[in-house]
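Deliverable D2.4 — example input (structure tokens):
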């Protein structure tokens, strides 16, 4: 009986490692993706992991604005992550664990 529990834990840990590895692979792929929008005199390039890479207005780089926007995006992502974690213990609730 105890060995069954240990064996079951090993499977759960293996599953968690697979999920973690898959999540890391997806994060890496998203970071490599680029979306570019040009509207009027504004050009913005953002990566798939939601980091602004380029922000230009009238052909001039807007690095300060880009940095501030990236900070705001990061904070909003952190708020969303905390909310998701509080829901039924994060993903474990969805996975029936």
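Example output (designed residues):
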């Amino acid at each position: 009986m105890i060995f069954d529990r240990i064996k079951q834990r090993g499977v759960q840990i293996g599953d968690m490692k697979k999920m973690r590895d898959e999540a890391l692979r997806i994060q890496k792929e998203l970071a490599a993706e680029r979306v570019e929008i040009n509207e009027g005199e504004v050009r913005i390039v953002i990566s798939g992991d939601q980091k602004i890479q380029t922000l230009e207005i009238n052909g001039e780089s807007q690095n300060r604005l880009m940095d501030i926007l990236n900070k705001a995006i990061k904070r909003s992502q952190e708020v969303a992550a905390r909310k998701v974690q509080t829901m039924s213990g994060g993903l474990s609730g969805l996975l029936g664990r």
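The helical segments are 2-32, 63-86, 91-94.
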